[in-house]
Design a protein that fits this description.
Strand content: 5-15%
Oligomer: single chain
Structural class: alpha/beta
Helix content: 40-55%
Distance between the termini: 84 Å
Strand order of the largest sheet: 5-6-7-8
Mean pLDDT: 76
Number of domains: 3
Length: 553
């Protein structure tokens, strides 16, 4: 750095420490956070809740210094040390939105991906161009022997085309300085992390949230920052859910979409199973949003872990337009759980996969190919346990055998249509009723709210007034035990409600199909997928079709 630049920096009171921390890569200089899903932003106070305004202004944000290379670098920027990828994305995006033009990251921070997402999001929304943003990253000591590769890796993680300034992290004998600065800044970083975390969780509790994305299959971002349906992509989402319920695996669905020439949300021609699983498991397609699925227990390591009750989780209903009915989503989750319990890898290569069961051992039949290389080639289905452990005596079946059995069973069902429909409606109105469970759910939810408030008051009182700590701990443990017991029962009730709603939806579809359908002369894939639960092959070779209302024929 030139003497002129150094003098310029020294002449700006208050910036010396910030720049020194920036060059060693251990400090954040401030951020901004989203106030609501509408996209309004408020600066985050890095000093806590004192109410003091951040000492930044448009003029300060516009000040630059000229490097020896001739490029202008903003003197004030956003540091991202200690931030996770998700928080770094939000911080970078809102910092740019509020006028920051320098964003600092490093491989050591582990958040280059998040920073890149935040910057690209700002660029995609037209807030800035790439040329207006100055991004710095760093080569860590372990990469000193491979600087070119390290720079390429950072560029790939950021995804911004180029990096404006690459620094050497902890150069020379700077370890002592780094240790000192780390000690000084750790408490500040903890304070910033706790303030940001509290603000985010408070907004979650109020039902306010943002969905950070540059591309979201089925949705675009509206003018108010909320989600609006992209109908062309929404058709693909509905197709994915329908194909899964028809028996295809995630891999088979990916292959089907690729074969149809449907592009992914990023414009790629080839789909993969991981993308399909992500769509199938995303509750936001129901118009609802589950918040705080993961959390970061250590603000230094920034490692996110799954939230299994360690911190509050929130479920916001009707937060945006739905693409998939909640009952359909629940059916898919139940089907995913069923396939997981199969014990063997679910193939899903055809509409018969996972639907033919062995009447002797309860296992599933899998497809096998006989004479695969000659003119006698034939596809059959055989129990997967036929030659493993205790051998099953059930014979193999062909697709034609299954089709014939289904046509015959379905026509018998249609012949007794009126009685079948009446029985299904009775089952739907009695066994699938959820009114009592919903009342219990409301009572349990209210109980949890009361217990949480009692815990908060217990902790607050212990902080204000000197107490016998043994008595306090006993009271605290009692409240926590009460909470856990209530929460466990609430989870059971929620699962029961979901199971009944799934069964109700299946029966409704069964009734609707039966009401409009007459006898059939040949196999129909649509009827098979919507009406059949499974086909059981007995030891005597007889095929029994079980329909979704529980009827066997």
């Amino acid at each position: 750095m030139s003497n002129h630049a150094t003098k310029s920096i020294k002449s700006v009171i208050g910036f010396l420490a910030s720049l020194l921390l920036l060059l060693t890569g251990v400090a954040g200089c401030g951020a901004s956070s989203q106030d609501s899903i509408s996209g309004e932003a408020k600066p985050t106070n890095p000093r806590g809740a004192s109410g003091q305004k951040p000492m930044t202004s448009d003029s300060a944000l516009r000040k630059t210094i000229k490097l020896n290379s001739g490029y202008e670098m903003p003197m004030l920027g956003l540091g991202t040390w200690t931030l996770s990828n998700d928080v770094a994305e939000e911080s970078a995006y809102f910092a740019i939105k509020n006028g920051y033009r320098l964003i600092d990251t490093a491989r050591y921070y582990g958040n280059e991906i998040g920073v890149g997402r935040g910057v690209r999001r700002a660029i995609d929304e037209g807030i800035v161009s790439r040329e207006e943003i100055f991004v710095t990253s760093k080569i860590m000591p372990g990469d000193y022997q491979r600087p070119d590769a390290a720079i390429d890796d950072s560029m790939a993680r950021l995804g911004l085309g180029y990096i404006d300034l690459m620094l050497i992290h902890q150069p020379g004998r700077g370890e002592i300085l780094l240790t000192v600065l780390s000690s000084l800044s750790q408490e500040e970083a903890r304070s910033i992390s706790e303030n940001v975390t509290w603000g985010v969780r408070k907004k979650m509790a109020d039902g306010k949230f943002s969905v950070p994305f540059s591309r979201f299959l089925g949705y675009d971002r509206g003018e108010d920052g909320g989600l609006i349906i992209n109908e062309d992509e929404a058709q693909t989402v509905r197709l994915i859910f329908r194909l899964y319920l028809e028996g295809l695996s995630s891999y088979a669905i990916a292959k089907e979409l690729t074969g149809r020439g449907i592009l992914t949300v990023t414009g790629k021609e080839k789909w993969n199973a991981a993308t399909i699983n992500g769509v199938l498991g995303n509750e936001k397609y129901t118009g609802n949003a589950r918040l705080q699925k993961t959390f970061t227990p250590d603000f230094l390591t920034k490692k996110a872990v799954k939230n299994t009750g360690q911190v509050p989780s929130y479920y916001v209903e009707n937060s945006h337009p739905a693409i998939i009915e909640p009952a359909v989503f629940d059916m898919v989750q139940a089907e995913m759980a069923r396939r997981t319990k199969c014990g063997r890898r679910y193939s899903g290569v055809s509409i018969f996969s996972g639907k033919i069961k062995c009447g002797e051992c309860g296992g599933f039949f899998g497809s096998k190919v006989w004479h695969s290389t000659d003119k006698y080639r034939r596809v059959i289905y055989r129990c997967n346990n036929k030659y493993g452990g205790k051998k099953c005596r059930t014979r193999h079946v062909t697709e034609e055998d299954v089709k014939v059995a289904f046509v015959a069973a379905f026509n018998r069902l249609v012949g007794e249509k009126d009685e079948m429909i009446a029985n299904a409606k009775t089952v739907r109105s009695t066994i699938c009723a959820t009114e009592d469970l919903e009342r219990e759910r409301s009572a349990l939810t209210e109980e949890l709210t009361v217990v949480v408030k009692m815990v908060e008051e217990c902790v607050a009182q212990n902080a204000r007034i000197a107490q016998n700590q043994a008595e306090y701990q006993e009271r605290y443990n009692g409240l926590v035990g009460r909470y856990e017991k209530t929460k466990a029962r609430l989870d059971e009730v929620m699962e029961s409600i979901a199971a009944k709603e799934i069964q109700r939806e299946r029966l409704t579809g069964f009734i609707r199909t039966l009401e409009r359908q007459g006898t059939i002369a040949e196999f129909d894939e649509g009827l098979w997928s919507s009406m059949v639960e499974c086909v059981t092959v007995g030891a005597d070779g007889v095929l029994t079709v079980e329909f979704r209302d529980g009827t066997r024929a």
